[in-house]
Design a protein that fits this description.
- InterPro entries: GH (IPR017853).
- The protein is about 25% helix and about 25% strand.
- With about 950 residues, it is α+β, with helices and mostly antiparallel strands.
- The protein has three domains: about 1-285; about 300-695 and about 955-970, TIM Barrel, CATH 3.20.20.80; about 715-945, no CATH class.
- The chain has an eight-stranded mixed sheet with strand order 1-2-3-12-11-10-7-8. An eight-stranded parallel beta barrel has the order 16-17-18-21-23-25-26-29. Strands 34, 37, 38, 39, 49, 50 and 53 form a seven-stranded antiparallel sheet that branches.
- α12 (about 405-425) runs parallel beside α14.
Length: about 950
């Protein structure tokens, strides 16, 4: 009997004690939100793994310090807004795949920003036998991986015995998770809790790299946001086939992790369970941050004399501004899409700091990743980057109403600067609006914002209109700002500077130096030598704005955008042109800066100065500091000269425009050539406004250097005798290669770009006709080379000759004349220069002239303006898409029939024809591709390509970056 009782007690102990231990264990100080509990109850099949875990961990909906919210797999905007709404309660948000597979692009981007990840579009699944796949595997079998990219409609199947690797807590093990995984890139590696890595198979890694798939990608990413922690699991790791009916037993999960070994549910027990438990435990210990108002008035920067000073502990350090402007555009995106990622910003900040810069300027609200990246960068680097933050005014409204006091303008402007003030303090949630950045802003960078630069380059007609509509406004008198002798527009500026200061003091008890944007067109000087009335019609005078009370502690400064080539008076003014600069040279830029500084009662920052490294040109300067047709080296040397001039004339410093190239932009002399809706999707080296950056996005698929290392057999169009003609392309250029040329020979490369047009004969190529209509000829002879165009198709002569009647047209509207003409762009229309008392005729230049040189950025003889090179019988040529009159190469859209349909005509083509004529010095034809039959060139070989929406792009620092790196490094 005693033995029976003992056995019974032992058995009872085995089953009862684990239950009692489970019962005695206190629940975590975290509970499920009501919506999460409801979701688990209503969807037991979908969330059973998570529900079992939460029951085992004693999580219910009771009151607690922290709430856990599980995001639904199909997330709506309403649900998302409800989850991230401002709350005082600490919250753990958990999302699993496929929650981030959101069709709404704006919502997807907002969630990705919050999650600190960026979707690549790829998903992957690991199979023990590919034959069991739910997708077609094209005969593949055995173990392997399937990668799918829905948006690209692409599938990659790889047979491999090696599984993915799962890495957590420094330990690596073979992956046992058997469902789809979202392949993302993190904004920062330190936010990744666990990783997936490519199999130990070099072939798999090579194929992933070729397709642009990262060989290591997050399994779990965590990010903290004030009172919320967000966890994204890139797979549905809670997925499980079977679960015990009981859960109230301590240690049951640990036992199961051993029992299941490598069975189908192993990942749930061995990985998901302890991983989520660890995340919850860390959340319990985590202390949220709070936004507080300073008890005493705070400021971290000030204007002293002619310099900025930045607080370093209890001391103030004098700073010369060495900086860059950062726009919101990148390859493939309009700026309003706010597409630059936190990871990209952080990388840029590292490069900017390595350039020896100390400041950056932004113009408006940036995406949340900008502020998080800056905070992270400055908290982990000894040398900080400081910010001049702009506050944008809606330019279109100002130009439409010609009145800054327009009610809608003021409403939008006030929202802009109040949002920005809250944003820099990490205290804002901005709702999505098309064309603007939005999201959760919880990174406090207020210590690093050393000045406000309010507004934009003011449209003169708007300033005049505002002054006329509100004449008699008088002077402004505020708590922190007053005016003396202000115009109505200057009153408006003072009023908003006051509002900015008051708002920040009221909410955060903090101030910083203030300024507003100005430019040469609305400076306070008179320019009698300016030929265009609108460029010197009205002044906006910073001197009339004066500070009062506490704002005097930090001071104000004037901000100007000053470029060396525009307005035109900078090129012709005799006084400025006679000024001798710091190098003992005549320098109209220095002359203007000298006069501008003398006229001001406050220090001045040159908030923009720049030179584009573009092929296309818009303005010329007497010293060669031109707006366009500048190499990267010339860009850098000119920027160096301008910056040294700025400092020599006693300015606070300068901000280079700009950090990155901006493909969405336009220039007045090429804006009629392209499709404005498609500008960001290709690189237009002919439009200088797109190429001001120190960093390029161009892939340069072929490094034009006369070698054939960048080419393969698949690029060959046709061979004829010793000659081979090849073609390829990227987002910026069409590339041509000719093999087999002799030094004494002339190559004429033929292009048929638009059907039913072009010449079937050419006066420069005698005794031959063409089956195709030829629209362009690249005529490459020793000592000179140029691209020529059929006059019927010449946009320049049609626009300015036929439409605007500023020059003589060269075509009478007759097709197939056999003539070809040089390609020109306009530089200046006819103008009268009052100081010179002369009228200058219509100015233009030949943009079709081709330059020989080395186009390889790695070469010591690199010239970014190089169009072609020839070595050892190999000719390489690159032609910008716009030079071939493509409105949009990403859609194969060209300028259409001008004579028939006018300057807005366009046509989408399927392909282009490319041919080759080789002649001797007497223009006798020696050889052709395709072959000549009975005096006629047969049909040209064709070249086509797939359309694209997201262009290939590669970040590359230009030569100008390294020149400015040394220039800034020499300044202390």
């Amino acid at each position: 009997m005693n033995r029976f009782i003992l056995v019974a007690l032992v058995v009872a102990g085995i089953f009862v004690l684990p239950y009692l231990f489970w019962k005695m264990e206190p629940p975590p100080s975290i509970s499920l939100s009501d919506d999460t509990l409801k979701m688990l109850d209503e969807n037991p099949g979908i969330y059973k793994g998570f529900a079992w875990w939460s029951a085992f961990k004693k999580l219910d909906s009771s009151e607690s310090e922290t709430k856990l919210r599980l995001l639904p797999k199909k997330l709506t905007k309403k649900e998302w807004d409800g989850m991230i709404a401002a709350s005082d309660q600490k919250t753990l948000l958990i999302a699993t795949f496929p929650t981030l597979q959101i069709q709404d692009e704006i919502l997807r981007k907002e969630v990705e920003d919050f999650a600190s990840v960026h979707a690549t579009g790829w998903v992957v699944k690991q199979y023990n036998d590919l034959q069991n796949s739910e997708v077609a595997v094209d005969g593949a079998k055995g173990p392997g991986l399937i990668f799918i990219h829905d948006r690209k409609n692409k599938k990659i199947i790889i047979e491999t015995d090696e599984p993915l690797i799962f890495k957590w807590n420094g330990e690596k093990e073979e992956n046992t998770f058997s469902d789809w995984i979202d392949i993302t890139t993190p904004s920062s590696d330190d936010r990744v809790t666990a990783w997936f890595e490519a199999p130990n198979d070099k072939g798999v890694m090579a194929q992933m790299t070729k397709e642009g798939i990262p060989v290591a990608f997050p399994a779990v990413v965590e990010s903290a946001h004030r009172n919320q922690r967000f966890v994204y699991m890139t797979g549905d790791f809670s997925e499980v086939e079977s679960l015990p009916d009981i859960y109230r037993i301590k240690g049951l999960a640990t036992v199961n992790s051993y029992l299941y070994g490598k069975k189908s549910d192993a990942f749930y027990w061995k990985t998901f369970f302890p991983l989520l438990s660890s995340i919850v435990s860390e959340t319990e210990k985590w202390t949220p941050t709070k936004v507080t108002r300073n008890e005493e008035l705070a400021y971290h920067s000030r204007v002293q004399g002619n310099h900025f000073e930045i607080r370093r502990g209890n001391d103030w350090e004098k700073v010369t501004v060495k900086g860059v402007n950062i726009g919101m555009g990148k390859a493939g995106y309009f700026p309003g899409e706010a597409a630059i990622t936190e990871e990209e910003y952080y990388s840029w900040f590292e490069q900017i700091e390595e350039m020896n810069a100390n400041t950056i300027r932004v113009y408006t609200v940036q995406p949340p990743g900008f502020y998080r990246a800056l905070k992270n960068f400055n908290e982990t680097h000894k040398k900080k980057l400081y910010v001049f933050h702009g506050m944008w005014v809606e330019e279109e409204l100002l130009e439409e109403t010609l009145d800054a006091y327009n009610e809608e303008t003021i409403k939008r402007f006030k929202k802009e600067y109040e949002d920005i003030i809250q944003i820099i303090h990490g205290d804002a949630k901005i709702e999505p609006v098309v064309g603007h950045a939005s999201g959760i802003y919880d990174a406090d960078i207020s210590d690093y914002v050393i000045g406000w630069i309010m507004g934009i380059e003011w449209y003169p007609e708007m300033v005049i209109g505002t002054n006329e509509k509100h004449a008699g406004k008088g002077d402004f008198e505020g708590t922190y700002i007053q005016t003396k002798g202000a115009t109505p527009f200057e009153y408006w500026l003072a009023e908003h500077l006051e509002s900015i200061t008051s708002f920040e003091i009221e909410h955060y008890n903090e101030i910083r130096p203030i300024s507003f944007t100005n430019w040469v067109t609305t400076d306070l000087l008179e320019h009698p030598s300016e030929p265009l009335l609108e460029e010197d019609a009205v002044s906006v005078n910073p001197n009339v704005i004066q500070l009062k009370n506490d704002l005097q502690k930090v001071g104000q400064f004037a901000s100007y955008h000053v470029y060396p080539y525009y307005p035109d008076f900078l090129n012709v003014d005799k006084t400025y042109g006679a000024y001798i600069d710091q190098d003992g040279e005549k320098n109209s830029y220095a002359g203007y800066l000298h006069a501008l500084k003398q006229a001001h009662k406050m220090p001045i920052l040159i908030a923009e100065f720049g030179i584009p490294a573009s092929r296309g040109q818009t303005h010329v300067n007497p010293y060669g500091w031109n707006q366009g047709f500048m190499s990267e080296e010339a860009q850098g040397n000119t920027l160096k000269k301008l910056y040294r001039t700025i400092l020599a004339e006693g300015y606070m410093g300068g901000l280079v425009f700009s950090w990155q190239d901006e493909w969405f932009k336009r220039t007045w002399n090429t804006m009629d050539y392209d499709n404005p809706e498609r500008r960001p999707y290709w690189g237009n080296i002919q439009t200088n406004e797109q190429n001001f950056g120190l960093m390029s996005f161009a892939t340069l698929k072929v490094k034009v250097d006369g070698l054939d290392e960048d080419w393969s057999a698949e690029n060959t169009l046709e061979e004829e005798g010793d000659l081979t003609l090849s073609a390829t392309h990227d987002e910026t250029y069409l590339y041509i290669k000719v093999d087999g040329l002799k030094k004494t020979q002339t190559a004429s490369i033929l292009f048929d770009t638009i059907p039913e047009q072009g010449n079937t004969k050419a006066s420069l190529l005698q005794n031959v006709t063409f089956s195709n209509g030829i629209d362009f000829i690249a005529h490459m002879k020793k000592g000179s080379a140029r691209l020529l165009i059929d006059p019927y198709y010449d946009f320049y002569h049609y626009l300015y000759g036929v439409e605007e009647k500023m020059i003589s047209p060269i075509s009478n509207g007759t097709k197939n004349t056999g003539e070809f003409t040089n390609i020109h762009y306009v530089l200046n229309k006819e103008m009268y220069y009052p100081e010179l008392k002369e009228k200058r005729s219509f100015e233009f230049y030949e943009t079709g002239k081709l330059m020989r040189g080395n186009g390889d950025p790695e070469s010591p003889t690199y010239n970014s303006l190089a169009d072609y090179e020839m070595k050892d019988g190999v000719l390489e040529l690159r032609i910008p898409w716009l030079l071939l009159q493509f409105r949009d190469p990403s859609r194969k859209e060209v300028i259409g029939d001008l004579v028939k349909n006018g300057v807005e005509s366009s046509k989408v083509i399927d392909q282009i024809g490319i041919g080759l004529m080789v002649t001797d010095s007497t223009t006798n034809t020696l050889q052709a591709i395709p072959a000549i039959s009975r005096g006629k060139v047969t049909q040209l070989p064709t070249y086509t390509w797939d359309n694209w929406d997201i262009p290939a792009s590669t970040e590359r620092l230009k030569k100008s970056y390294y020149i400015m790196q040394k220039t800034f490094g020499d300044v202390r």
